[in-house]
C-alpha cells in the first residue's frame, strides 16, 4: 500500500482536515481552557483564556492550539435551531422578510442578548455613581464633614462603583462578541445552504462574487451590530440618569440640558437617513465590482492568452470609481455626524451653564464639577450614537440584502420522481416532458420529450451545437425547471460535468467523494481510471504536469465508484454527432468520459512537498513598523499627519482649559464670593468651546481625507499587481484569497482603519491630559503611576504576541470559507447529482467554526487585557482619593482636587480606549499588511517594449522555429523540455501528440510566454518572441479555450472586448459560427446580455 501514499498528499491546501469536535487531543485542550468548562472566578476574571495567551508567548499560535467552541457557540449547534425557527416563522424560504429575519436572529440568541443587556444596565448605573458623589466630595474637602470617616467611606464608594463599572463593561463587551459570532455563523451557514440549491435563473441574477459579499461583509456587519444593539435604550437610560444628577446640581437648568440634547439628536436624523442611502449604494456597487472581479479571476488564463487583462482591469477601476463616489458621500456624512456629536457635550454644557447664569442659579465649583463629570460620561452614549445610527442603517441594508437573497428561487424538488431500487426495469422514464430554463419565457427549452432507458443500456445523445443535448441531461438530474410531464428514475446516477471540476483536498478525497474507503474497490478505480498510469504523484508534480490532466481519470473514478455498486446505474454526459461517426461502441464511452480531459492548464508553481495550492502566507510576529509607515505616507506622502496631530492636541488642550477655567472661576460654596463675573465666565468658556469645536472638525475631516486617499491608492496598486502577476500566481492562489482582500480587507481600509488609527493618538493625548490635570492636585500620584504604567506596558506586550497571531488566523481562516463556497457554486450540479449536499454543508460549518474560534478568542483576549488594566487604573484612582483625604485641606484647593477626581473617574475608560484602539488597530492593520503582500507580487515581462515592437503585419507568414528550447516551471524544479529544436512551416496544420505529462501543454504555454524558457528561444517570422512585449506577442496569436466562457455583459463585449471591430465584422463571425440567427432572435441583438446564452 505504500505506493498509494503519494495520492494521500494534499492537492489543494487541506480544508479537508478541519478540526473535528471528536478529536481527543483537541477535546482535552477544550477541557483545559474552554469557556464552557470554566468556573465562576475563571469566567469573572477571564482566566480561562490565560493558558492560550501564555502559549502565544512561547510560540506562534496555530489553529490547532485554539480550544474548541462549545456546542452552543458552534455552527453545528446553532444553525439547525436558527433554520427551524426561520422556517416556522416564515413558512417558506421565499417568504423571508427583513423583519422576520431580524426576529429569528433575536430568538435564536435571546439568552445572550438578554444577559448582555442586564450587564450593560448595571454598567450604565454604576458609571454615574462617581459624578453624583463629586459635589459631596468637594464639600468634604472644603471642611463640611457630616459624619466620622466620611472621606474614607466616600473613597470606598468611589472605588466599589469603579470595580462594578469595569467588571460589567468587560463582560458586556465579551457577551456582545459572543452573540455576534453566533449570529454571523448562523447567517453564513444559511447563505451557503441557500447558494447550494439556487436555481439556474437565480444564479444568473447573483454571481458568486455577490454572494461572497453577503457572507463576508453583510453577515459580518450583522454580527458586529451586537455591539450596538443595546445602545438605543442605553442612550435613553444614560441621558435620564444624567438629567437626574444635573437636576440635583443645577436645578431647572437641567431642562435646558435636556432640550439641547434632544435638538442635537433631531439634527442628526436627516443625516442618518442619508447615511443609510449612501451605505446601500456603496454595497450595491461593491457587489457589481466583486461580481466582475470574481468572474475575471476565474478566467484569468483566457484573458492573458488573449492579451485582454488590462482592458478588464480598466473595467474594475471604473466600477471602483463609481463605488468611490458613494464612499466619499458616506465618509463626508460621517464627518458631520462626528463633529456634531463630539461637540454635543460641550454644547449642552454651554446651554446649561448659560441658563444658570440667566435664571440666577449660583455656579459652585462642586456643582460645576459634578455637571462636567456628568457631561463627560454623557459624551460616551452621545458619541456612540452616530456610530449606532450609522450601524443601524448599514445593518438594515445588510438584512435587506440577505432577506432578498433568501427569497430567491431554488431548484424544484418535484422534477424527478425517484423510485426505490429494484422496483422498475427502467432506469429513466420521461413522458411528455416540457422543460424551460426560464419559466417566465413563453418558449420552452425542451418540448414533448419522451425517453425510456432500460438498465444496462449504453446511450449516446447526438446532435448539433445548441440542439439541447446538455439541457436533456440537465433535465434528467433535476437541474431544469419542469413545466409538465413526468420523469422517473430508478437506481443511482453518476454525472460527469462538461467543465472539469475538482475540489480542494487530497486526490484520494476527490476519488472517494464522500464514500468510505474500500481498498480493493479503490485500487480498481485507480487502474480503470488510469491514474496510476500517469506516474507517481510526486513525479507528476516535478515534471510540471498539471493535475487538471488527471481530471478525466477523476471523472471516471466518480462514475466507477458508483457503478461498482451492485445496483442499476446510468451515466450522463454528452458528445456531438460528428464525433460519433468513426468510433465503436466500446470507444464511445471512453470518448464521452474524456472528451474534455485535455484541458491542459499547467501548474507553474508546484512546491517540492507536493501541494498544487500552498497554504496562505501568514506573517508571524509583530506587525512591522514598515506596514504602519507605508500606510501613513501613502496619502500625500504623510503631509496631513502633523496637521491631524496638531488638531488633536489643540482639541484636548482647549477642552482641558475650558474645564479648568470653570473650576477656578467659580466659588467653592454659596457663602464664598466668586472672583470673576458671570458674563466674563461664560464669554471665555464659550470662546474655548468654539475653538475646541473648530479643531474637532478639522481633525475628523483630515482623518477621513487621509484614509480615503490611502484606500484608493492601495486598491489601484494591488489590482494592478494582481493583473500583471504571472499565471503561476493564479494557479497557486485560490481566487477566494484575492477576493477576500478585494472585499473584506478593502472594506476595512475604506471605512475603519484611518478612524481607528487616529483614535489611538487622540485617546493617548486625552490620557496624558488627564494625568497632567491629576498631577496638579496630587503630584505624588507619580509614585504609583510609574510602576502601574510599567505593569500596563508589560501586560500589553504579554498580550500582543497572542493577539497578533489570533488576528492573522482570523484573516487566513476566512479565506477557506470563501474558497469552499466558490468551489461549491462551480460544482453545485455535481454535488447535487451525487446527493452530497449534506456533506458539503457539514464541511462548510466546520470551516465556519474554524473562523469563529480565533475571532471569538481574539476578542476574549482583549477583554482579558482590559480587565487587568482596569484593576491597575482603579488602583491609581484609589491612591489619589486616599492621598486627598489624608492630607490637610490647606495644601490643595478643593476645586482643583475635585477636578482631579473628575478626571480620575475617566482614567480607566481612557486607558482602556487607548489599549482597545491600539489592539484593534494592530488587528485591522493586518488588512493593510495582507494588501501590501499583493502590491509586491512578481510581474510578467513588460507588456510592450517600445524599442522592439514588431510591425503591424507581424506575423505575416507564420514560420515558427524552436532552437534548443529548455523550460522549467520553477527554479528549484527539473527541466521539463530539454533542448527541443524543431520547425513549424508556415501554413502547415500541425498536431502535437503525446502521453499525459509529455509536455504538450508546456510547449503551447511557452509559445504564449505564460512560461519563460530558461535557455534557447522561439523565433516567429524572424523575431525572437522573448525580445518583444508580451501583449505584442499574445495579441498577434490566437488560441481557442477548450472551456466555453462568457463574461457578464453584451454579446458585442464578449466577442470584441477591445472594441476594435465593426458590427458587420461581428455579425460575419457569428454567422460563420452558426450563431447569427440565434442572436438576431434576441431583442437586444448584439447588445443582448451574453449570460442568456
Automatic annotation (TrEMBL):
Xref: InterPro entries: ABC1_TM_dom (IPR011527), ABC1_TM_sf (IPR036640), ABC_transporter-like_ATP-bd (IPR003439), ABC_transporter_C-like (IPR050173), ABCC_6TM_D1 (IPR044746), ABCC_6TM_D2 (IPR044726), P-loop_NTPase (IPR027417)
Keyword Repeat: yes
EC number: 7.6.2.2
Transmembrane segments: 104-124, 151-168, 225-246, 252-271, 628-650, 682-708, 777-795, 865-887
GO cellular component entries: membrane
UniProt cross-references to PROSITE patterns, sorted A to Z: ABC_TM1F (PS50929), ABC_TRANSPORTER_2 (PS50893)
Main localisation: membrane
Positions of the ABC transporter domain: 428-662
MF terms in GO: ABC-type xenobiotic transporter activity; ATP binding
Pfam family, one: ABC_membrane
Catalytic reactions of this protein: ATP + H2O + xenobioticSide 1 = ADP + phosphate + xenobioticSide 2
Membrane-topology descriptor: Multi-pass membrane protein
Keywords: ATP-binding, Membrane, Nucleotide-binding, Repeat, Translocase, Transmembrane, Transmembrane helix, Transport
Domain ABC transmembrane type-1: 114-394, 643-923
UniProt-annotated location(s): Membrane
Family the UniProt entry places it in: Belongs to the ABC transporter superfamily. ABCC family. Conjugate transporter (TC 3.A.1.208) subfamily.
Identification of the protein by name: ABC-type xenobiotic transporter
Organism of origin: Flemingia macrophylla
Amino acid at each position: 500500500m505504500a505506493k498509494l501514499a503519494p495520492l494521500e498528499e494534499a492537492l489543494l491546501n487541506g480544508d479537508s482536515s478541519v478540526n473535528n469536535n471528536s478529536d481527543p487531543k483537541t477535546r482535552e485542550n477544550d477541557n483545559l481552557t474552554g469557556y464552557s468548562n470554566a468556573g465562576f472566578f475563571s469566567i469573572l476574571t477571564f482566566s480561562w483564556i490565560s493558558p492560550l495567551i501564555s502559549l502565544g508567548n512561547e510560540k506562534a499560535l496555530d489553529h490547532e492550539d485554539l480550544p474548541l467552541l462549545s456546542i452552543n457557540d458552534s455552527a453545528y449547534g446553532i444553525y439547525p435551531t436558527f433554520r427551524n425557527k426561520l422556517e416556522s416563522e416564515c413558512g417558506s424560504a421565499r417568504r423571508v422578510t427583513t423583519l422576520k429575519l431580524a426576529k429569528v436572529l433575536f430568538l435564536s440568541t435571546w439568552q445572550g442578548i438578554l444577559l448582555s443587556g442586564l450587564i450593560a444596565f448595571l454598567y450604565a448605573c454604576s458609571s454615574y455613581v462617581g459624578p453624583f458623589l463629586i459635589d459631596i466630595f468637594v464639600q468634604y474637602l472644603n471642611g463640611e464633614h457630616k459624619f466620622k470617616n466620611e472621606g474614607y467611606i466616600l473613597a470606598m464608594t468611589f472605588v466599589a462603583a469603579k470595580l462594578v463599572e469595569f467588571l460589567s463593561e468587560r463582560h458586556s463587551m465579551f457577551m456582545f462578541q459572543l452573540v455576534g459570532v453566533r449570529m454571523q455563523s448562523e447567517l453564513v451557514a444559511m447563505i451557503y445552504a441557500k447558494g447550494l440549491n439556487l436555481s439556474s435563473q437565480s444564479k444568473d441574477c447573483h454571481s458568486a462574487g455577490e454572494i461572497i459579499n453577503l457572507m463576508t461583509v453583510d453577515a459580518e456587519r450583522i454580527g458586529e451590530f451586537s455591539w450596538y444593539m443595546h445602545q438605543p435604550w442605553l442612550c435613553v437610560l444614560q441621558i435620564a440618569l444624567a438629567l437626574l444628577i444635573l437636576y440635583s446640581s443645577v436645578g431647572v437648568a437641567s431642562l435646558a440640558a435636556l432640550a439641547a440634547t434632544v435638538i442635537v439628536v433631531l439634527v442628526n436624523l436627516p443625516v442618518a437617513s442619508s447615511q443609510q442611502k449612501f451605505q446601500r449604494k456603496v454595497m450595491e456597487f461593491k457587489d457589481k465590482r466583486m461580481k466582475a472581479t470574481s468572474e475575471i479571476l476565474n478566467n484569468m488564463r483566457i484573458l492573458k492568452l488573449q492579451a485582454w487583462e488590462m482592458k478588464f482591469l480598466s473595467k474594475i477601476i471604473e466600477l471602483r470609481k463609481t463605488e468611490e463616489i458613494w464612499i466619499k458621500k458616506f465618509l463626508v456624512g460621517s464627518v458631520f455626524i462626528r463633529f456634531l456629536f463630539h461637540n454635543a457635550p460641550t454644547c449642552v454644557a454651554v446651554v446649561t451653564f448659560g441658563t444658570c447664569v440667566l435664571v440666577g442659579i449660583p455656579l459652585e465649583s462642586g456643582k460645576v464639577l459634578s455637571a462636567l463629570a456628568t457631561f463627560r460620561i454623557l459624551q460616551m452614549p452621545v458619541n456612540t450614537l452616530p456610530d449606532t445610527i450609522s450601524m443601524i442603517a448599514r445593518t438594515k441594508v445588510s438584512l435587506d440584502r440577505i432577506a432578498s437573497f433568501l427569497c430567491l428561487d431554488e431548484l424544484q424538488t418535484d422534477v424527478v420522481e425517484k423510485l426505490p431500487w429494484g422496483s422498475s426495469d427502467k432506469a429513466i422514464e420521461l413522458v411528455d416532458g416540457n422543460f424551460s430554463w426560464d419559466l417566465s419565457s413563453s418558449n420552452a427549452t425542451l418540448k414533448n420529450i419522451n425517453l425510456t432507458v432500460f438498465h444496462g443500456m449504453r446511450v449516446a445523445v447526438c446532435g448539433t451545437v445548441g440542439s439541447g443535448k446538455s439541457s436533456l441531461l440537465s433535465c434528467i438530474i433535476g437541474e431544469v425547471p419542469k413545466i409538465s410531464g413526468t420523469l422517473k428514475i430508478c437506481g443511482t446516477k453518476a454525472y460527469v460535468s462538461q467543465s472539469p471540476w475538482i475540489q480542494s483536498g487530497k486526490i484520494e478525497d476527490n476519488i472517494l467523494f464522500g464514500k468510505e474507503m474500500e481498498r480493493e474497490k479503490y485500487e480498481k478505480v485507480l487502474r480503470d481510471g488510469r491514474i496510476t498510469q500517469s506516474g507517481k504523484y510526486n513525479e507528476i508534480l516535478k515534471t510540471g504536469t498539471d493535475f487538471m490532466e488527471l481530471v478525466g481519470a477523476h471523472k471516471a473514478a466518480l462514475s466507477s465508484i458508483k457503478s461498482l455498486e451492485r445496483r442499476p446505474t446510468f451515466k450522463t454526459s454528452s458528445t456531438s454527432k460528428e464525433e460519433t461517426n468513426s468510433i465503436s461502441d466500446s470507444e464511445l464511452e471512453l470518448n464521452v468520459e474524456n472528451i474534455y480531459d485535455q484541458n491542459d492548464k499547467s501548474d507553474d508553481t508546484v512546491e517540492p512537498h507536493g501541494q498544487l495550492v500552498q497554504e496562505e502566507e501568514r506573517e508571524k510576529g509583530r506587525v512591522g513598523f514598515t506596514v504602519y509607515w507605508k500606510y501613513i505616507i501613502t496619502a500625500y506622502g504623510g503631509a496631513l499627519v502633523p496637521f491631524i496631530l496638531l488638531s488633536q492636541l489643540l482639541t484636548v488642550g482647549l477642552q482641558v482649559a475650558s474645564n479648568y477655567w470653570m473650576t477656578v472661576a467659580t466659588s467653592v460654596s454659596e457663602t464664598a464670593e466668586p472672583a470673576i463675573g458671570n458674563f466674563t465666565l461664560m464669554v471665555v468658556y464659550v470662546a474655548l468651546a468654539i475653538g475646541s469645536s473648530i479643531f474637532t472638525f478639522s481633525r475628523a475631516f483630515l482623518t477621513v481625507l487621509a484614509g480615503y486617499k490611502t484606500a484608493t491608492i492601495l486598491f489601484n496598486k494591488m489590482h494592478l499587481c494582481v493583473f500583471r502577476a504571472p499565471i503561476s500566481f493564479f494557479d497557486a492562489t485560490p481566487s477566494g484569497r484575492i477576493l477576500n482582500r478585494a472585499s473584506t480587507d478593502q472594506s476595512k481600509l475604506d471605512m475603519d482603519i484611518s478612524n481607528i488609527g487616529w483614535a489611538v493618538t487622540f485617546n493617548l493625548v486625552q490620557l496624558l491630559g488627564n494625568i497632567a490635570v491629576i498631577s496638579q492636585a496630587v503630584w505624588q500620584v507619580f509614585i504609583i503611576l510609574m510602576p502601574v504604567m510599567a505593569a500596563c506596558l508589560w501586560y500589553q506586550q504579554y498580550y500582543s504576541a497572542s493577539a497578533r497571531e489570533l488576528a492573522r488566523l482570523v484573516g487566513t481562516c476566512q479565506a477557506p470559507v470563501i474558497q469552499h463556497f466558490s468551489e461549491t457554486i462551480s460544482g453545485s450540479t455535481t454535488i447535487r447529482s451525487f446527493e452530497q449536499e449534506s456533506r458539503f454543508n457539514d464541511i462548510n460549518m466546520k470551516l465556519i467554526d474554524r473562523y469563529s474560534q480565533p475571532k471569538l478568542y481574539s476578542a476574549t483576549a482583549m477583554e482579558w487585557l482590559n480587565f487587568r488594566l482596569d484593576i491597575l487604573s482603579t488602583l491609581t484612582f484609589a491612591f489619589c482619593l486616599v492621598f486627598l483625604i489624608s492630607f490637610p485641606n490647606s495644601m490643595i484647593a478643593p476645586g482643583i482636587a475635585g477636578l482631579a477626581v473628575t478626571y480620575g473617574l475617566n482614567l480607566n475608560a481612557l486607558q482602556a480606549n487607548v489599549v482597545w484602539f491600539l489592539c484593534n488597530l494592530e488587528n485591522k492593520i493586518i488588512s493593510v499588511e495582507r494588501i501590501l503582500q499583493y502590491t509586491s507580487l512578481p510581474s510578467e515581462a513588460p507588456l510592450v517594449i517600445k524599442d522592439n515592437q514588431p510591425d503591424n503585419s507581424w506575423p505575416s507568414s507564420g514560420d515558427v522555429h524552436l532552437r534548443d528550447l529548455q523550460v522549467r516551471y520553477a527554479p528549484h524544479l527539473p527541466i521539463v523540455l530539454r533542448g527541443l529544436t524543431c520547425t513549424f512551416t508556415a501554413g502547415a496544420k500541425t498536431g502535437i501528440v503525446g502521453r499525459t505529462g509529455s509536455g504538450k501543454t508546456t510547449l503551447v504555454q511557452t509559445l504564449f510566454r505564460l512560461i519563460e524558457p530558461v535557455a534557447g528561444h522561439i523565433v516567429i517570422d524572424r523575431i525572437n518572441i522573448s525580445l518583444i512585449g508580451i501583449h505584442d506577442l499574445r495579441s498577434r496569436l490566437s488560441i481557442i479555450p477548450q472551456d466555453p466562457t462568457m463574461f457578464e455583459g453584451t454579446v458585442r463585449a464578449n466577442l470584441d472586448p477591445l472594441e476594435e471591430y465593426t458590427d458587420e465584422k461581428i455579425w460575419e463571425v457569428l454567422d460563420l459560427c452558426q450563431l447569427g440567427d440565434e442572436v438576431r432572435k434576441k431583442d437586444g441583438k448584439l447588445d443582448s446580455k451574453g449570460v442568456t446564452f
